[in-house]
C-alpha cells in the first residue's frame, strides 16, 4: 500500500514547472491545471483569478514537501509579482496552495530561508493560499514540453545549491 501525498504550487507557465518536476526524485506524477480562481471548470481561455498550477504526487519516503518547495524556489523567479519571463498576469503568480497548517508552516520556513540566502535580488512575493479545488487543464497542456520539445518555457534551474542545508 502506498502513502503518496500531493503538493500544489504555481510558478508561472505550468508547462515548464511540470517538465522540470517530472524528473525529480520521489515525484510519482504531475498534472497541470488551474487553482485559486473565481470559476468552476476553468479553461485555458477562461480562468479568471486562477493560477496556472501543478499538482505533484510524491512519495514521502523519497522526498518531502520541504524539498519540493526548495526546488520550486530554484526553478522560477519568486520575486516578481504576477510575472514569469514574458508571461504577465495573475495566472502567472508564484503561489503555494497549502493543505494544512503544517504545510503552511513549512512554506513560511522555506521562504524565510530563501530570503535569508540573499541569492535573489529582492524578497520572495510567493503567496500562501489555502487549498482550493485544483482543476486539471486540457489534455493538450498535459506533458506539453514532452509533446513539443521546442515549446516555450521560462523555467530552468537557477541555483544548483539547495536553500535547505
From TrEMBL:
Transmembrane segments: none annotated. It comes from the Bacteria. Residues 6-154 form the Peptide methionine sulphoxide reductase MsrA domain. Keywords: Oxidoreductase. It is an enzyme of class 1 (oxidoreductase). Pfam families: PMSR (PF01625). The active site is at residue 13. Belongs to the MsrA Met sulfoxide reductase family. This is Peptide methionine sulfoxide reductase MsrA. It comes from Winogradskyella damuponensis. The gene is msrA_3.
Amino acid at each position: 500500500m502506498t502513502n503518496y501525498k500531493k503538493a500544489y504550487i504555481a510558478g508561472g507557465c505550468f508547462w515548464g514547472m511540470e517538465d522540470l518536476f517530472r524528473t525529480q526524485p520521489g515525484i510519482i506524477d504531475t498534472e497541470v491545471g488551474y487553482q485559486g480562481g473565481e470559476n468552476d471548470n476553468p479553461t485555458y481561455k477562461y480562468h479568471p483569478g486562477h493560477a496556472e498550477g501543478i499538482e505533484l504526487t510524491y512519495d514521502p519516503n523519497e522526498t518531502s514537501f520541504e524539498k519540493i518547495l526548495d526546488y520550486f524556489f530554484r526553478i522560477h523567479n519568486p520575486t516578481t509579482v504576477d510575472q514569469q519571463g514574458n508571461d504577465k498576469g495573475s495566472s502567472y503568480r508564484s503561489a503555494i496552495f497549502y493543505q494544512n497548517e503544517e504545510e503552511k508552516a513549512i512554506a513560511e520556513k522555506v521562504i524565510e530561508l530563501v530570503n535569508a540566502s540573499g541569492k535573489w535580488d529582492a524578497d520572495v512575493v510567493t503567496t500562501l493560499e489555502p487549498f482550493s479545488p485544483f482543476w486539471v487543464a486540457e489534455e493538450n497542456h498535459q506533458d506539453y514540453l514532452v509533446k513539443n520539445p521546442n515549446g516555450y518555457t521560462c523555467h530552468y534551474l537557477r541555483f544548483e545549491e539547495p536553500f535547505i542545508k
